[in-house]
Every structure is written in C-alpha cells, then in structure tokens.
Amino acid sequence: MIIILTFLIYFVAIEHLVIMGLEIFGKPEQQAKLFDMPLSFVNQAPAKAALGNMGIYNGMLAVVLLVSQWVLTGQPRLITTALLLVYIVIVAIYGSLTVKKSIFWFQGMPALVTFLVLLTQFL
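^ thats the sequence. predicted structure below, dont judge the formating
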C-alpha cells in the first residue's frame, strides 16, 4: 500500500507542477481555454499577474509536498501530507464552485483519493 500511496503523492505533486507551468508560462490562448476565461481577459496585465500568482502557489505546494516526502519520516510525514492534501481538496472545491466545475475532478479528486489511501496508514 505504501508504494501506491507514494505514487499517488508524486502524481499530485507533478500535477501541480504542470498546473504551475500552465499558469505562469502557458500561452494566453491555452490559458483562456484551460481556465475557461475570455482571451481578452487573459491578455490583461492584472490577469497575467493573477495567473502567475496562482502558479507560484501551485508550484510551492508541489515542492512542499515533495520535500516533505524526502525530509520527514513516520507520523510527521503522514500528518504533513494529509494537511497538504486536505488543503488541495478544499481549494479545488472552492475553484469548482467559483471558476470551473472540472477543477474539482482534475485537482481535487486525485488529492482526495490520495488522502483516503493515506488514511489507511493511520488505521
């Protein structure tokens, strides 16, 4: 089970690194389509800044998730990972309610499944 959990954790982290890349470095046409925003909006400086800011958050979340796997052990590692996964699920729920419904399925569901697998390590 620990191999499956490790794979899922890395999957969630890599997913957030990809999202970071799209938010920071994606072409405006790609960002508009992915994030269901008008291209005219995405091309505005404040929207670019907001997307970059969200990208930094997603990237740092991925980095902390990965580093916690390498630096921490035992229960501190499980607790830290659980907190990060719950954070991702909550943010994905909010994003699905306010921006685009598919956010939950693409970001929240992998984190939720990983969290549920992680819970088996506590029981």
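DSSP finds six helices and no strands in the chain.
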